[in-house]
Amino acid sequence: MIKITSINENNNIVHREYDNMSTNFYQEGRLVELDLNIQQPSGSHECGDTERCGDTADRDNHPQFSKEDIERMSNRSSATHKASNPTTLKIQMGLTCNFNCAYCIQGQFGSRGIISNDDVDKWIDNFDTWCTSKKDNPMGIQLWGGEPLLYMDCIKRLVIFLHERFTNSRISVVSNGSLLTKDIADFFIENYVEFVVSHDGPTNLKNRTLDPLAEGSESLKWIKYLNDHKSRQAGVIFNAVITKDNHDIQSIIDHIKGIMGDRASVNFEGIVTVEDRDIFSDDMLYTDKDYLELRENIIKMYASGSLQGVAPFQQKFDGLLFNWFHPDRVIEPGSFQKCGMDNPYTLGLNLHGDVLKCHSTTEVIGNVDNLDIVDLYSGVTRWEQRDECKECIVLSLCKGACMLVDEKSWAYTCNNEFNFNMAVFESVFEYVFKERIVRIDGLNHRP
């Protein structure tokens, strides 16, 4: 049990214990029944946030999903192989990119995975030989690079086919935004494609090659054009990565909205993953002072309501509240990592039909022609294999971080995720109990 000491509005000290696996609170040995009149906030859940794909907290009573759908999209599974009826497709268009960003996981692979229109045509022709997902099933589809707009002819073929194949699909393209033109924007508008621009706000040029939102640039003109035509699933979403250089969340939101207008949707991909320590210089790593500033910044913004509807903050807030108010929601073996790539129904693949360990890598773990032998757990480290994860207070929020991180880089990624998610935990705690946490014992946060 993790012991939490907090102080209330009357300066009285309160002691509780927290079970990180059941997400239950205890006081003086008795279960704390949270029967408070609290309305759980409802976020926008806009696509483009990679964590959203595995977030199932709001699905239990959703009329859109059948019982079969709910089981398939459950946050846990005993299956060890990929399923032929996926609910999420993460398609790697190729790893060629016109940027060279400092912390990019994909950058280490160079210009690999170049594809042609012939590859796409063969992929489309072969699709129904392996995919058994029903035409009307909800389907989330993400098109990734490198820089996917370098493959625009291929994207057009794919989008038209996938929208036809899945009538209830949501398609997003994750891009650096620099290559957008009017023709591309018009295609996205006409075909209900969500355009996700990775942008780090005022510090964008610190770790990235160019700024697509630079004043007077062609890319800014067409990003604004697409943003102004936002309707249904089309439009622009901006996703920032929280790094040491930009952990002032409000300044990122203000910077992008200052350029794009208040209508702009600004979300966050979460805190940076240190998957390969060798590509990170020392000045890119958080210090204790940076972590403190990040946590205080997030707690303050939660309290003011500034993060309402902002992903992934809103989803984490909603998810933690849901767990605390539903004592049957237990984290147990088989629960998925935050990216959901160990989910049998989340399929990362390229346009050669290869099944990928992650959409950001080139590592192949099988082929769509033989999904029943694709091993979900080969060569990865899941939270169940790390003692510090099993004992961590923010396991239900962090979900084990990245399962591809090796031991050399794990301490950095773990510390980043812990401090980011601990800020959310403290914010929700203060929201529910009207108390501020002053001490935590039994944390066992070893990294």
Overview in brief:
The chain is α/β, with parallel strands linked by helices and 447 residues long. It has helices at 67-72, 117-130, 152-165, 182-190, 204-207, 218-228, 249-260, 288-304, 313-325, 387-390, 395-398, 407-433; strands spanning 2-8, 13-19, 24-27, 30-31, 88-92, 139-144, 169-175, 193-198, 235-242, 265-271, 346-350, 354-356, 364-367, 435-441. The chain is 30% helix and 17% strand.
Can you walk through the features of this model?
It is a single chain. With 447 residues, the protein is an alpha/beta fold. The chain has a single domain, classed as TIM Barrel (Alpha-Beta Barrel), CATH 3.20.20. The protein has helices spanning 67-72, 117-130, 152-165, 182-190, 204-207, 218-228, 249-260, 288-304, 313-325, 387-390, 395-398, 407-433; strands at residues 2-8, 13-19, 24-27, 30-31, 88-92, 139-144, 169-175, 193-198, 235-242, 265-271, 346-350, 354-356, 364-367, 435-441. The strands form three sheets. It has a seven-stranded parallel beta sheet. Strands 4-3-2-1-14 form a five-stranded antiparallel beta sheet, with helices on one face. A two-stranded antiparallel sheet has the order 12-13. Helix 2 (117-130) runs parallel beside helix 3, helix 4 runs parallel beside helix 6 and helix 8 runs parallel beside helix 12 (407-433).
